[in-house]
Amino acid sequence: MTKLLLTSTGLANQNITNQFLQIIDKPVSQIKIIFVPTASRTDEEIKYVHESKKELLDLGILENNIKILNLDSPVSFQEVEDFDVIYVCGGNTFYLLKKVRETGFDKIIIEFAKTDKLYFGVSAGSILVCPSIDIASPFDENDFNLTDLTGLNLTDVIVSPHYKDEEKTIIDDFKKKSQYEVVPLTNEQALLVIDGETKIVE
């Protein structure tokens, strides 16, 4: 059973937090998380990574139960199989896709998602598991000239995080061109995907 919780900004409110805990369904002090900050390269992006980790610690998750993976070397499934959550932070979506491919972490995420555990995405981390990351093109710089923008395809919808009303024209144009359903998410919303069934959490 594939379980995805795709957000713009992480545990942005109590409903998203409650959903997070409900899916994992074990005492907070026992929850073990793989935390992936790789997409964050600028000072501002790194600041949000620190905020995301603080949210987890404030929730009661133990520091020792959070393993940081920077994706600077190949990853094996054995490194993640004993964890409950893969939590992928935001940043540059193109860089993130490049790094997960280079390290084989794309295949690890797909395998992990088949084991009835939770994939939690923040911004770029949410876009990553969609059929395509092309939705990031108006917002992130593709400074690696990636041409294959195929995502991990763990859901058949495309999320557009950080949605604001002034982006409506951009998103509407993208919807017209896309063969997939496009779900805009504000900073206070998340998309829950359980075995292909989707629900907005806000």
Descriptive account of the structure:
The chain has 202 residues and is of the alpha/beta class. Helices cover 31% and strands 19% of the residues. It has one domain (3-201): Class I glutamine amidotransferase (GATase) domain (Rossmann fold), CATH 3.40.50.880. The chain contains 6 helices and 9 strands, in the order E-H-E-H-E-E-H-H-E-H-E-H-E-E-E. Strands 3-2-4-5-1-8-9 form a 7-stranded mixed β-sheet, with helices on both faces. A two-stranded parallel ribbon has the order 6-7. The model has no long low-confidence stretch (mean pLDDT 97).
- Count of discrete alpha- or pi-helical segments spanning 4 or more residues: 6
Task: Enumerate the spans where pLDDT stays under 50 for 5 or more consecutive residues.
Answer: none
Structural class: alpha/beta
- Proportion of beta-strand residues: 15-25%
Number of domains: 1
Q: How would you characterize the largest beta sheet?
A: 7 strands, mixed
The dominant shape is globular
**Relevant CATH superfamily:** Class I glutamine amidotransferase (GATase) domain
Please provide the ordered H/E string of secondary-structure elements: EHEHEEHHEHEHEEE
Beta-strand segment tally: 9
CATH class, please?
A: Alpha Beta
| Strand numbers in spatial order across the main sheet | 3-2-4-5-1-8-9
The helical percent reads 25-40%
> Mean of the pLDDT scores?
97
CATH architecture: 3-Layer(aba) Sandwich
CATH topology category name = Rossmann fold
Radius of gyration, in angstroms, nearest whole number: 16 Å
